[in-house]
Design brief:
By secondary structure, the protein is an alpha/beta fold. It has a single domain (16-228), classed as Rossmann fold, CATH 3.40.50.720. Helix content is 36%, strand content 19%. The protein has 8 helices and 9 strands. The strands form 2 sheets. It has a 7-stranded parallel β-sheet with strand order 3-2-1-4-5-6-9, with helices on both faces. The protein has a two-stranded parallel sheet with strand order 7-8. Strand 7, helix 6 (178-190) and strand 8 (201-202) form a beta-alpha-beta unit. Helix 2 (30-41) crosses helix 7 (203-213) and helix 4 runs parallel beside helix 5 (137-150). The longest helix is centred in the middle third of the chain and has 21 residues, at 96-116. The chain is globular and about 45 Å long.
Length: 232
């Protein structure tokens, strides 16, 4: 079950009460939607700029949706921080090239645009096993993105590497993935025998961890599932 996002108390006091303007790419996905919810509930966030391929249903007064082509992003308004939650699958994208265009190219373009707009802090949803030298295509692309982001000059780069994500995809109009069904079944059977970093994790937990750490972290920080999971 998804748990509510309570970001105000997580970052309260550490960010010095500074008003923040934030960009978010990927607000329609499992983690991205939870990040958006948390940002809009955070009193220190005065404006959220969501970059999307289509208009969002959310009509919150603090939210501005920019319908964009990620291959040709316009200049962004002045920003303090940004979050990248873009992601697809090779099956959904249709090819490895199309997958790479979303998970690497669009994410990197957004990060560059955010940095050009003044953002000093960046949070990104990557994946467990991300490695630019991996033989697994998916992991290799995620690793290449991490390496590229590290070279953009952000003061803060927080990388979330979740294991299997749990959330209500049906509510987002997304099909339940076969791999997720198998992973959840295995987790239900094996339970605590599975190491903490490999157990399925709620998308809201990943969002909450990023929202807590991005405003206060310094340098590069990697979050694994074991550290991001909230206690019941």
């Amino acid at each position: 079950m998804e748990r509510p996002i309570r970001t105000k108390s997580l970052a309260e006091g550490d960010s010095g009460g500074t008003a923040r303007t934030v960009a978010l790419a990927g607000a329609t996905g499992l983690v991205g939607q939870a990040i958006l919810q948390g940002l809009l509930a955070d009193e220190s966030v005065i404006a959220v700029h969501a970059l999307a391929r289509r208009p969002l249903d959310n009509r919150h007064p603090g939210l501005t949706t920019h319908v964009v082509d990620f291959a040709a992003l316009p200049p962004l308004p002045p920003l303090d921080e940004a979050y990248l939650a873009l992601g697809t699958t090779i099956k959904a994208a249709g090819s490895q090239a199309a997958f790479r265009a979303v998970d690497l190219d669009a994410s990197l373009a957004t990060a560059r645009a955010a940095r050009a707009a003044g953002a000093r802090r960046l949070g990104v949803v990557s994946a467990m096993g991300a490695d630019a030298h991996s033989r697994v295509f998916y992991n290799r692309v995620k690793g290449e993105l991490e390496e590229a982001l590290a070279g953009l000059g952000f003061d803060t780069l927080v990388i979330a590497r979740p294991s299997l994500l749990v959330g209500d995809r049906g509510m987002l109009g997304q099909p339940v993935r076969a791999g997720e069904k198998i992973g959840l079944l295995a987790a239900a059977v094996a339970g605590p025998l599975i190491p903490a970093n490999f157990r399925p994790i709620a998308a809201s937990d990943v969002a909450c961890a990023l929202l807590a750490r991005v405003p206060v972290a310094r340098g590069r920080e990697v979050l694994l599932s074991g550290a991001m999971r909230r206690e019941d």
